[in-house]
Amino acid sequence: MPAVADAADDAAVLVVEDRDSLRTMLRLALEAQGYGVLEARDQPEAEAHLARRVPAVVITDLRLPSGDGLGVLRAVKARDAAIPVVVMTAYGGVQDAVAAMKDGALDFLAKPVDPDHLRLVVGRAVAQQRLVRDHERLLHEAAERRGAPVIVGVAPPLQRALQAMQRAAATEATVLLDGESGTGKELFARAVHAWSPRAAGPFIAINCAAIPETLLEPELFGYEKGAFTGAVQRKLGRIELAHKGTLFLDEIGELAPSLQAKVLRVLETREFERVGGTATIRADLRLVAATNRDLRVEVAERRFREDLFFRLSVVPITVPPLRDRGDDVLRLAHHVLERHAQAAARRAPVLDDGARAALLSYRWPGNVRELQNCLERAAILADGGVIRAQHLHLIESPVPVPPVAPAAAGVDLSGTLADVVARAQADAERRKIADVLTDTDFDTHKAARALDIPFRELVARMRALGLGTD
What DSSP designation does 224 have? Predict the structure, then answer.
C-alpha cells in the first residue's frame, strides 16, 4: 500500500480463547512450529494487542466472556483487511463458523482442536498472507515507479482510507475526498492517479477556491481567440489538458452554481465547449474531487447541486484528521525531519521525550500541514541536533466564547415569549430600516431596493414602526 506502515510480523499469531488450558495448548503447539504467540482472553484484550502489533494470523473462539469472535473478526479487518482470521467453535457450532467465514474469516477449527490440523490451517493462513503482502508490495513498487506519493501512517482510519483508495483507483469511478484542511487530500488524489490504469497520462490539478469566479471558467474549459479582451490566442483548459489522465478539482465546494452545472455536464457526457467557441470537445478523463466542506449540508442549504453531489460521490473517501491517527504523529514527524535533512545534506535532528509527548498531546487543528511547518521551524531552532518541547511552540488555542450581542442586554423580557419575540423583531426591523434610510439619504425608493422589498411595503412598515413616510 502507499504508506510507510509496519509490516505484519510473520512469526506472530494472536490466540483469543478464555479457557487457560486450551489457550496454553494452542500456544505450545504453535511455538513448536516456530511461531510467536500473543494471548488474549476476550475481545478487549485482543483489540489491545491489535493496537500495538499487526499479527500474521488471528485464531479466535466464537464464544468469549467479553465480546465475541465476530467482534474480534471485525476489529481485525478494521485494523488490516489482509490479516487472516481462523475461528474456533465447539461441536454443533459449525453453522456459526460458516457465518463467520461469510463475514471474512478464512477457516474454522472444530473443538477439541487437533494440533496437527491447527498447524496445517495456520501454515496455510500464513502462506496466503505472505502472498497477499508480496502482491501489495509489487503493486506498491510499481505505483512508486509511476510517481505515487508516500503516505505515512498505520492508524486504522488512515489504513481504511488507503484501502478504499486502492480499490477505487483500479476503476474509472469518480472519487470524492473529504476531510479537514491540511489532511493530505491532494496526496490521496495523486495516489488514485498513480495506482490507476491512467497513471501514464497527465495529472491536472486546480484549486477552485484559489481562482476568482470570472477566471475559473476559462481556466477549466479554455477559450478561443477573441473570446474576451486579452484572449489573443486559443488556450486549452485544464479539462482538455487532462485528456487520457486524471483531473483533480480541489475545494470543489467553492464552485459557483453556473460552473457546477457545466462540471456536471462534463461528468455526464465527457463533453464541453471552450469559452467563446461552438465546437463540442470530448475529454476522456477520470475526475477526483476534494472538499473540506460537508457537501450534504451545502446541498440541503441549496448552495451545491444535489445531482452534482451524487455524481461526485460515487466513491466517497474520508481522509482522517491527524488528531485521530495516534502514534502516526511521531511517524510523520520522523519522516518530515528525515526528508528535510536529506534535502539539506545533513543529519536529521532527533526528538527528545518532551517533544514527543508534546507532539502526541497536541490537537493539530491544521493537521499534517501544521505539523510540517512546526517541525521545519523546530529544526532551525534546535540546539545540538535535538528538538525539545520549547522548540515546537505548540500552544493550544482556547475555545472561543461567543460574545453576547450588545443589544441583548437592553431587550425588554417582560410578558410571554411571543411578546418578547415581537418586540425584538420590531426593534430589529426599525434599526435596519433606519440604517438603510440613512445610507440612502432617506430616498425611500433606493431604500426599498436595498432592502429588497416593494416600495409600498416599506412605506407601510415605516408607518407601523413610527419612522414616518416619504
Answer: -
pTM for the whole thing? 0.61
**Lowest-confidence range among 3-17, 110-124, 343-357, 404-418?**
404-418
Q: Percentage helix, strand, coil, to 5, in the chain?
A: 50, 15, 35
Cis amide prior to 112 (ω within 30 degrees): yes
Distant-in-sequence, close-in-space partners of 347: CB < 8 Å, separation ≥ 6: 341, 385
**Distance, CA of 4 to CA of 407 (rounded, Å):** 56
Sign of the torsion angle spanned by Cα atoms 410, 414, 419, 420: positive
Enter the DSSP assignment of 44: H
Under a CB-based contact definition with an 8 Å cutoff, are residues 3 and 150 in contact? yes
**Neighbouring C-alpha atoms within 13 Å toward the C-beta of 104:** 17
What is the tens place of the pLDDT at every residue in 342-388? 887 788 899 999 999 999 999 999 999 999 999 999 998 887 789 99
3-state secondary structure of 321: coil
Which residue is listed with cell 497477499?
A: 132
SS3 of 36, please?
A: strand
Cα three-residue angle 465-467-470, rounded to 5 degrees: 125
Q: Identify the sign of the CA torsion 139, 144, 145, 148.
A: positive
Ranges of H-type helices in 270-410: 295-300, 306-312, 328-343, 353-361, 367-381, 389-392
Q: Which domains does the chain have, with CATH numbers?
A: 3-136 (3.40.50.2300), 151-318 (3.40.50.300), 322-392 (1.10.8.60), 411-464 (1.10.10)
User: E strands, 218-345, where?
Assistant: 245-250, 271-272, 281-282, 285-291, 315-318
Which cell numbers hold the place of 402? 461567543
Given a cut of 80, whether residue 463 has pLDDT beyond it is no
Cα separation, 285 vs 305, in Å, equals: 22
